[in-house]
Amino acid sequence: MSATARVVAISGGIGGAKLALGLYRALPADSLMVACNTGDDFEHLGLSISPDLDTVLYTLAGIANPDTGWGRAGETWTFMQALESLGGETWFRLGDADLATHVERTCRLAAGEKLSAISEDFCTRLGVRARVVPMSDEPVRTMVHTDEGILPFQRYFVQNRCEPRVTGFSFHGAGDAHPSLPLWEALLADRLEAVVICPSNPFISIDPILAVPGLRGAIGDCGAPVVAVSPIIGGRAVKGPTAKMMAELGIPRSARAVAEHYEGLLTGFVLDESDEGAVGDLPCLTTRILMETEEDKTTLARQVLDFAGAIADKVR
Ligand code: FO1
Predict the structure, then answer these.
(1) Does residue 71 have its Cβ closer than 6 Å to ligand 1?
(2) Could you tell me the sign of the dihedral formed by the alpha carbons of 292, 293, 295, 298, in that order?
(3) What domains can be seen in the chain, in order of their start residue?
(4) How would you class 120 by CB atoms within 10 Å of its CB: exposed for 0-12, middle for 13-18, buried for 19 or more?
(5) pLDDT reported for residue 277
(6) Among 34, 55, 70, which is best to mutate for testing ligand 1, by the most ligand atoms less than 8 A from CB?
(7) Given pLDDT bands bounded at 50, 70 and 90, which one contains residue 309?
(8) For residue 103, what pLDDT band results from cuts at 50, 70 and 90?
(9) Statement: the pTM of the whole predicted model exceeds 0.90
(10) C-beta neighbour count of 30 within 10 angstroms
(11) What is the whole-number distance in angstroms between the Cα of residue 17 and the centre of ligand 1?
(12) Contact 169 CB / ligand 1 (< 6 Å)
């Protein structure tokens, strides 16, 4: 049985994985749990796909595709080419090596294994000494409400390239889901020193996690500081549709608006030095949060951990 984590990172895919990697390097081995959004998961070509779990797993394992941020480095695409030649669906691209992850996960789920157990085993097999786990073992599916109708997440994100105008989100299955056991145990453990909400999209990466009944309360009551890092820098998202969504939802495109989105949950907030400093009376760390280099990731992670330690006495 693995030790419970000292730090729990709450993460979506590519943006969150960068800080998760920094935390992984900044902390001793076996100290980090990354709890991933599974609202992006879907069944495609008969396979169970968990993009955010895989992005974090591959990133921590050092095998992520550096150009896309998703999928594996050095990937080949024979399967996709063969599928195309047969008239199959190719809008969602599964590389040959990545395909093995989806096939193995699908087989194990069909045999009754839990997604959390499969994810932890994949970590062990790929040499990752952190625990990468789903928010829940039950299916939760993000639905994007748009001016073109309600779209399943990957249809909106990949097939429609985030182009439809967003009016809201719903998380199918969330009401009946339970937090995954490893995440639940980590949030209840005395050993927990910080919860870090990674600079992921608040609406489509973090909100599905907070929508799992019990998780928002457990994070808020965990007894450790809860620190979020802004995904918005100077009014723009580093990557992805966060700023576009904020504009479409009538929310100011600012770091402050992100902090307000998490109102009642945070002990502290980390924002970029190019953004306005004050977020009410919430303790803030203003620093350079753009993670361009490998060193940037570790430096920011250390700053976030130090900041969490410094505001630990503010935990309610
Ligand atoms: N994103 C794309 O933009 N196009 C793809 O074809 C694509 C394939 C894909 C395959 C496996 C995987 O784990 C992720 C993949 N992603 C792809 C990324 C993913 O859909 C999104 O980045 C996340 O869901 C958002 O966090």
Answers:
(1) yes
(2) positive
(3) 7-139+173-315 (3.40.50.10680)
(4) buried
(5) 67
(6) 70
(7) very high
(8) very high
(9) yes
(10) 14
(11) 13
(12) no
DSSP 243-309: HHHHHHTT--SSHHHHHHHTTTT-SEEEEETTS----TT--EEEE-----SHHHHHHHHHHHHHHHH
Q: Is 89 helix (H, G, I), strand (E, B) or coil?
A: coil
Pocket perturbation via mutation, ligand 1, pick of 92, 106, 144, 159 by most ligand atoms within 8 A of CB: 92
C-beta of residue 231 within 8 angstroms of C-beta of residue 237: yes
Using one digit for the tens of pLDDT, what is the confidence trace for 271-288? 999 987 668 889 999 999
Cβ-contact 8, 196 below 8 angstroms: yes
Residue 2: pLDDT band with limits 50, 70, 90: low
pLDDT above 90 as % of the chain: 94
Residue 149: is it exposed, middle or buried by C-beta count within 10 angstroms (0-12/13-18/19+)? Answer: exposed
Q: CA triplet 204, 26, 28: central angle to 5 degrees?
A: 110
